[in-house]
Structure formats: structure tokens, C-alpha cells
Write a structure and sequence with these properties.
Strand content: 15-25%
Number of domains: 3
Number of helices: 17
Strand order of the largest sheet: 2-6-7-10-1-11-12-13-14
Oligomer: single chain
Mean pLDDT: 86
Helix content: 25-40%
Shape: elongated
Radius of gyration: 30 Å
Distance between the termini: 67 Å
Number of strands: 16
Low-confidence stretches: 381-385
Amino acid sequence: MARSATETSIAPEVMARYEPVIGLEVHAQLATLTKAFCGCSTRFGDAPNKNVCPVCLGLPGALPTLNRRALELAIRASLALQCGVQPMSRFARKNYFYPDLSKGYQISMYELPLATAGFLQIEVGGAAQPARKRIGITRLHMEEDAAKALHEGFVDSAKFTYVDFNRCGMPLIEIVSEPDMRAPSEAHAYLIALKQVLEYTEVSDCNMEEGSLRCDANVSVRIRGTEKFGTRTEVKNLNSFRHLQRALEYEIERQIGVLESGGHTEQETRLYNVSAGRTETMRSKELAHDYRYFPEPDLLPVTCDEQRLEEVREQLPELPDTKRARFVTAYGITAYDADVLSATRERADFFEEVVRHGAAPKLAANWIQTQYLRLESAGNAPGNETTHKSPAAREIAELLLMIDSGEITAAVGKKIFPRMWQTGQGARSVILEEGIVKMDDASTMEQTARAILARDPNNVAKYRAGNESVLKFFIGQFMRETQGQANPQTATEILRRLLAE
């Protein structure tokens, strides 16, 4: 059974004496149609070894050519992360042998990366005491991905490894943070914020299930108040937010346990065993590879002048932090609402389109966060991918205007919205088809109110004795009786009058 992320065998007061130091190395696959150095397709899901060529396979005499679009996206990511793009950078050969690297080396950037000295702001402290923290970014560089090795268990006493070269040569950027994070929750927040920036700028689709976003973590612990870092370990290939946080929690506790028992931590590379819920040794420092980097002789240095940077800068969309701040000031919504609405670029654009069609911003923000996202989440749930024609921003704005003006109640709106979601119809069309009308006839409403009061003389007596909270109960009964079609304000006025008689 997997170890719980919250389990600990070390006393809390002992854990509290130590401070974790965490840095992340994130690989993101660039959203190009072809690979980094050849014209092979980057399409995911094709038959194994379909999208390959002499360059991918490293055949003798094959020469790489840098994908211009990949470079543009890498520069875009650098600017979005506030990095300084270097006037000149250079590719190198990272030499090592493994079955997933047929040419015996990986093309990457080493001593001259594309960009350096950036940062990313993250939210820390939780909802009770929200705060912003700046996480430094050491470098961002380009490289190619290796092939995918599939290891099969023992069959007839032999172990097999299959290699799919479709992934070999995929264009990547590696983003290396400073060791500025002090808790697994901060690393989790950093990865979420980084993913959001890459998605907003359309640099990468960041699909972790397809391997478009992968993370390695460097972690050490030290006594709180000391400046010197402890001995770090690297935890490789963390491919989900949950695995990142759990692996860090385990590794921090493991290192503290080693130090508390009088031992010392080893500099090593570890893997996270998901099923066991623990990190395990992959290789020690003594066995670490010597990659023998040297400049790639078949590729020219990459140059980025100010004109090229300005062209890319002009294509940058409004970034998440800027959008959140604007939503608060321009639309008068809360910081929490702005955070939820700007979680994805598509959601933020949809909210603004609903407002442009006349809906009140606060009502639109509330409706999208509750009714819209509820149906969207239900429709995307595994096993429930039902086809639907979710209403356009114009139709939702029309519905919200009808609620805001009192033409229909919010309860009626909630009743017809699922029908709008299934059919794509506007609110008025659904109301006509369903035969829904708002009850606003004063005589009919008074008859309903009298019937409700007559059924419950005990609560009527309580109200008349001074317990005004009973009024809310009667209003609830009234709205239930009328199936939410009555005007709540009119219902309240009628009930108050009858109770005062």
C-alpha cells in the first residue's frame, strides 16, 4: 500500500527544526508541428516508430537543422518568465549511452543557454494569509528529447526493452529554478504557476499524461537559521502535481531521519516509487555520468538581436498575473474570483466575452464559477463524456440579464441552464419550450402564502412572538411551493404583511 503523504514517523517538533531547500528542473515540450532538428511530425499517439528519419535515428551523415518555430516559442517563454535572452547561445553535445538515444548523445545547450536570470511569482500562505513570493529562474535552454523506452517484465527468463523513437528529437525547453522554495506546497504552487504561463503563451500544451511537462526536484534540508545548504538529492521524472508533492514530503522526512540518527545524506539521484509512496536510489554520485559536453559542430550559434526579441514580445498575450490584477480593478470582483476565472486563458476570455454582451461582471463571475464549471466538470468526468453544445457567451449573457432585471428568478435560471448546456439554445427558447413562466400575479401569490401559513400555526406563533428568523423558513417553503418561479422580494413582502395581520 502506498504511503500516505501526511504520514510521518518523526515528531513534529523535530521536523520543525529543519528547513527544506527545493529547486525544480522542468522540461516542457514546445508546441510545434515538427521536431527540433528535422521535419518529422510531433503528433502524439501515432504507431510506434512511425515519425522517424535519419536525423531522429542518428544515422551516419544526417545533419540537424534548427526548427525556427521552436526557437520563437523558447524566446516567448523566456520573455514571459522575465528572463534575459542572451545575444548568443550555443548547442552542445551531451554524451551518454542509453537505448533511447541511438546516436549516443543529446543535443542540448550547456555553457551558453538561451536565457538567464528570470523569476516567477507564486501564491504562498494559503487563503487565510495570502502572500506573494518570488522564485528565481537560473536559466532556460533548448534541447531535444530522447526516445521512449518501455521496459517489460520477465518473459521466459528474459527481460525486454522496447524503444519508440517517435519522441526522439521532440523540441524541449528546460527551465531551472533557483533553490528558493522552502516547502513542498511552494514547489507545487511554482509548478502550477509555470504551467499556467506556458499554456497562456501557447508555448506548450503541458499535457503531463502525454509527457509534455516533466519535472525533476533537487531537495536538501538544513537546520533553520543556518545559511549553508545541506547535501541535496535529485528526484527524477515527477509527472504529476500530486507525485511532486508526495515525493518531496517523503524525501524531506527521509533526510531529516538520516541526520537525526547521526548519519549524513548522500548526494544521489533517486526515483519516486508511486505504488510504494517512497523515493528509491537510482544512482550515487560516484556512478553519475560524465557527459563530456562539447559544442555541437553541425549547428551554428543562435543569435537573438533586439529586433527579433521585439517581434516575439509583441506577440505575447496578457499574462496571468496582469490579467488577475486587471479583473479585480476593472470588474470589481474579488481576488479569489479573479484567480479562478483566469486559471486558463480560455476561461478568462469567455468571462470577458459574457461581460461584453451586457452581463453584470459580479453575476457573470459567480455564474461561471458555479453553474458553468459544475456542468463542464461533470461533462469531462471519466465515463461521462457526453456530447453537448454548451451555450455561447451571448446566450449566457442573455440569461444573466433576464435574472438581473427580475424577468426570471435565479432559481428558474438554474433550472433551465442544464437544458441550455445540452442543446446550445438561448434562455428564451428553453423557457418557451418548457412552458416556464415567472409567477408575479399578486392574487395567486397571496393565496399560496395563506395556504403555507395555515399549514404551520406553530411557526406563525413563533414569528408573532418575536422570532423573525422563522420568516426565512416560510420564504423557503414559498419558493419550493412555486418551484422557484415566484419573485422572492414580492413573496417576502406578502408573507410579512400576512404575518403582521
